[in-house]
Amino acid sequence: MNTTTNAVRAGAWRGWVEFRQSLTNAQDLLGYFLMPAVFLVISFSVGGETIPGTQIPAGALIMAGAVGFLVFIAGGMTVAQILAMEREDGTLLRSKAVPQGMLGYFVGKTCYMLLMTTLGVAIIVVPPVLLIDGFAVQGVAGWFHLVWVCLLGLFATVPIGAAIGSLISNPRMIGLVMLPFMALAMASGIFFPITAMPGWVQTLVQVFPVYWLGLGARSALLPAEAAQVELAGSWQHLEIAGVLGLWGVVGFLVAPVLLRRMARRESGSRVAQARTRAMNRPY
Amino acid sequence: MTTPEASAATHDVEQQPAETVIEVRDLRMRYGSTDVLKGVDFSAHPGEVLCLLGPNGAGKTTTVEILEGFRLRSGGEVTVLGTDPATAGEAWRAQVGLVLQSWRDHAKWKVRELLAYLGVFYAPHSTPDRPRPYDTGELLERVGLTEHANKRISALSGGQRRRLDVAIGIVGRPRLLFLDEPTAGFDPEARRDFHELVHNLAAAEDTTILLTTHDLDEAEKLADRILILAGGRIVADGSAEQLAAEVARESEVHWRHNGERHSHATVESTEFVRQLFERHGSEITDLEVRRASLEDVYLTMVHRHETGQVDAAADEFTRGVR
Question: With an 8 Å Cβ cutoff, is B168 touching chain A?
Fold first, then answer.
């Protein structure tokens, strides 16, 4: 039997096992429901307001942006957090100690991220479809856009998360990474229309994937007339695919270098040191 | 009866150098300007249980990590299972098992699940004489975790967790197993069980075992051969009995003269005591002649090591055992 095929198959199994585990523990379950719940509350709190010049409720706009934000957080932060944690507790070293174990580990994480994000998107999309006017998957084309935007979004953001995770040695530092992520999302028109931001901010955020993720998610979940409040007045699907694709390609060239460097340095004494540090931390 | 073929075959085998599992020559490791290993030499033979003994900070873990292929050495030659671990591939990795000090990994996994998952990676490396991986049920039985098979790993006690680590270490039926400080933090009973497990492993699987410890008692119980690492060198190499016999040549003589206590270490204790009485006669009281045990010598060395006189301690020990 080929060792590579064997490891890929084992990795897929790993992804499934870890996905199943995430459904049976309170902390992970809270993670699935917390963000959708928060955005649902925000959407309801804006009440009957509509997007200026349209009949579309502002709540629907926020909820649609939230779908893009969820993918951004899953790829950029969850991956970073998992890597930092599993490096500290020795999971990564364990994978390094078995033949082709690192391949299995990364295939496993990929499968896990796909399954987790699929469920996450389902959880965040279904309630507003039922509860919020103007929020609906826009027919077959809407489904198509939702799927490719989410997949390409993961492709663009997972390497970012992997890079952050390989550079951070203390998993509790991930909380600090959340701040710039939130600021970027806010500036990128996730929580309110980007037209409210100064011109230079509008230009700057178009460099990052989160703006395009939000735009893509809105294109799949809002009626066509909502496009008029976007910067270009249209959904710009080509540009979305271009920017997210470019981030993904560059990311998948850079991140493996950082990951290999990180993995090479793992050894029993480093895990032991990390454990001592973790036990001596006051928080 | 000796056929020509048989004698030719025997001749062939004799021409080959005896197979070694680990071969280390002049191994050096330097961190910044500190030399941790200053030329370590040793070898291990198939099926041998080898114990690397030394005080904390002597470089045991560094040595083992170099042999595991997790750390690049500064100098010297290292061959493990016929290959340099620094450049060894996945086929080599499949022959080696590890039990390291601080595993807290896969906390959400169930015991049986993790063993089965990790075992899968060894399946392509299965051979008729070493079917890989180990059957999960059999392995759980072996380390005494059958009744905890469906528990989450985070719910295991310290001793059970360690048994699982050993199970994972041998799931691929390794030809060489590394155990780094395997019983640190164990209560005496867990320790005794663990020692029994290691004995069985070495006997039944023909697995070579290299274990590190700072505990002489553990080394004496487990090892076929003890290597003492101090001051960046191997200062002693032999079975517990050999080492004990060598240090036992020296004795400590204690006595009291004019109310004052004296002591002297000597190989010629009988002659020394004869001269002592010749000179002082009945002024000598409380005479005691005690053979130094391996433990006395080792503890002295550890104490010196911990108070910073590393080289002196290593030299002293070398003199003690030679």
Answer: yes
The ipTM (two decimal places) reads 0.87
User: B207 CB contacts (<8 Å, ≥6 apart)?
Assistant: B47, B97, B170, B173, B174, B175, B176, B177, B201
Please indicate whether, in this complex, the C-beta atoms of A2 and B124 are within 8 angstroms of each other.
yes
Cα separation, B78 vs B84, whole angstroms: 6
| A-chain residues near B64 (CB < 8 A) | 268
Chain A nearest-CA distance from B93, in A, is 5
pLDDT, mean of residues B112-126: 96
Q: How far apart are CA B243 and CA B265, in angstroms?
A: 18
Mean pLDDT of A11-29: 94
Highest-scoring range by mean pLDDT, A59-63, A144-148, A195-199, A250-254: A144-148
- The phi, psi pair for B102, rounded to 5°, reads -125, 60
3-state SS class at B152: strand
Rounded to an integer, the average pLDDT of A100-114 is 92
CB contact under 8 Å between A101 and B123, yes or no, is no
Of B248, B213, B185, the C-alpha closest to B198 is B213
CA distance A198 to chain B (A): 47
**How far is the CA of B248 from the CAs of B219, B293, B315, in angstroms?**
18, 6, 17
